[in-house]
Amino acid sequence: MQSRRDVQRQQSRRSFKKTVRNIVVTLLLFILVTWSVYAIANHPRAAAQKQATAMAKKYAGLKSTSGFYIYNRDQTYYTVAGENAKGQTILVVVPQKGGDIRVLKQSAGLTASQAKSEVKTADNPKRVLKVAMGIFNNKPVWEVTYLNQKGNLCYDLISFTSGKSIQQINNL
Known about the structure:
The chain is of the alpha+beta class. The chain has helices at residues 4-60, 112-123; strands at residues 62-72, 76-84, 89-95, 102-105, 127-136, 139-147, 153-159, 165-169.
């Protein structure tokens, strides 16, 4: 015959095991839901990257990729950075809604990090959020999105070829 104390211990162990099991199940469900939301939210970007990369390989001879950018202004452009068969670093700018695909030699202009440095030097941002390649007024540009020292959202378009600021939008 079990004593009252033994019965209480067994009940306490069962209760503890149930609690641990419930915590583990809840944690696993949370991880699953978080991963699902992330995967669903990232699907359009992944699909655009896959399509733009396929077009860059087909029409521009891209052999390897090193970056992907999305630019949204009047039109949306997807840019795939990488190397062609000759080992040259290129940027392939693909319009979302069709049109001419542009192939730019990286050596002919600024890199993303150089455009970012230009903005850091000129505007002293609190934080740079994004750098993206696109087409503005039929010319290739780097769009640098950042927060200024007051925490306001700002955009700066930097010419790919000259490195000069083409347009600034401040304090949004």
